[in-house]
C-alpha cells in the first residue's frame, strides 16, 4: 500500500481509496442530480471557488450561479442536447475553466445524473493579439477593486455599501492596515452616482505635512519659493464631480483639519497663497487605522471634523477574523499573478494549509505580497518549502482531518452537519424541510436524531 493506494493492480479499491483518488485529481469533478442539486464534488473546488466540498454538496447549482461564484450553467445545455456538452466558465476569483458535462441516463432514458469535469485554461493562451476586445472581456474579473469574500460579516458589509453608495454623504472606513480600505472606497465610488467622475486617492501619511496642504488644496502663483509658474490645482479641485479618498486621515495636522472641515461644510476652500475661494462638488471618503475617538479625547483630532467625517462608519474586519476568505483570496491573487506574469503556477495542499493557519498581521495586502513573491520565486508548483520563514515560524502545526472510513459514514456525517446547520438557522422542522428540500416528517425525524441536545423541538 502506497499513500493509501493498493500496490497490487488486482487489489480491490475501496470507497475510501476511490474518494482519495478523486480528491487528488487535478480536474474538478462535480456530480449533480437531474434538478441541478450537487451530490458530490472533489476538493479541487476549493482551488477554483475557495469553498470546501461540505459547503457545496447538497446545494443547488443555481444558488452559486446567482451569487456569481461561477457561470454560466451547463444544465440547460445538457437537458436540451441530451449529450456531452463543453462550455467555458469563469469563476469569481479569476479562473477560466473548460467544463465538460456528461449526462447519465436511467433505464427509462431520462437524465438521472450529470457529471462535469473542469480544468483550468492555460493562462499563457488567454491573450490573443488579434482580439483586444475579447481579451478585455476575459480579464474584467481581475479588476483591482474586486472584493473577494465568503465571510458573512463581509457580505453584510458589502450589501450595506450597496445601500449607502448612492447617498452622497461622507463615509469613514476604519480598519487595520492592509484590510482593503482603498478597495472598499473604490467600490463605493463605482456604485455611486459619481461613478463617471474622477476617483482620486491620497495617503495622508505618505506626504510630509508641509507638502500635504498644497497637494490637497493647490496653490496660487508665487505662493512660495519654487512654486510652479501659474500655480497648481490641488486634488480636491481635480476630483470635482467625483470622489476623493483620504487614507490615513488621522495623520493630518490640526491646521489642515480646519481647512478640510470647511470643504465638508461649505464645499469651498482657499488654495495656499490664494485670495479667491474655490468651490467644488465632491464626495469625501476617509479611512484610518487609528482610534479617532481617542484622538479627539487627546486633542489630536478635531471633534467637529470627526463627527462630520463619521456620518456613516464602516468597519473592515482583519483577515484573521475571516479565515474562510484566505483560500479564495490565495487563488484570486494566484490567478491574477499568473495572468500578469504569463505563468501557470499551482499550489500544493500542504502550502495552502499553512497559509490558511497563519494569522496575517499585514492582512490582505500582506497576503497579496506573499503570493507575488511565491509566483516569482517558485518553479511552477508552490510548495511548503517555498513559503517565507516568517510564516512557517509563526504558524501553529496544521492538524489534518481524517475522512470517514466508508461512504455510508461519510453520507451520515454530511447529513448530520446539514441538518444541524439548518436547524440552528431556522429552528423549526417546517423551515428545515424547505431548506433541505425534504418532507417535514423526515425533517422532524432527522432533527430528533441529530439536534436533541440543541433545543427542545416539541414545538417544531
Description:
The two termini are 50 Å apart. The chain contains 20 helices and 14 strands. Helix 19 packs across helix 20.
Briefly summarize what is shown.
The protein has 460 residues and is of the alpha/beta class. It has helices spanning 15-23, 44-49, 53-56, 61-66, 75-81, 132-138, 152-164, 181-191, 209-217, 235-238, 254-266, 292-297, 303-309, 326-341, 349-357, 363-377, 389-393, 407-426, 429-436, 440-450; strands at 28-33, 38-41, 85-90, 96-105, 111-120, 171-174, 199-203, 243-247, 268-269, 278-279, 283-288, 312-315, 346-347, 381-382.
Strand elements, count = 14
- Average pLDDT value? 82
CA radius of gyration: 27 Å
Level of helix content? Answer: 40-55%
Helix and strand topology:
Elements: H1 15-23, E1 28-33, E2 38-41, H2 44-49, H3 53-56, H4 61-66, H5 75-81, E3 85-90, E4 96-105, E5 111-120, H6 132-138, H7 152-164, E6 171-174, H8 181-191, E7 199-203, H9 209-217, H10 235-238, E8 243-247, H11 254-266, E9 268-269, E10 278-279, E11 283-288, H12 292-297, H13 303-309, E12 312-315, H14 326-341, E13 346-347, H15 349-357, H16 363-377, E14 381-382, H17 389-393, H18 407-426, H19 429-436, H20 440-450
Parallel strand pairs: 6-11, 6-12, 7-8, 8-11, 13-14
Antiparallel strand pairs: 1-2, 1-5, 3-4, 4-5, 9-10
Could you list some keywords that capture this structure?
single chain, 460 residues, alpha/beta, five-stranded antiparallel sheet, five-stranded parallel sheet, 14 strands, 15% strand
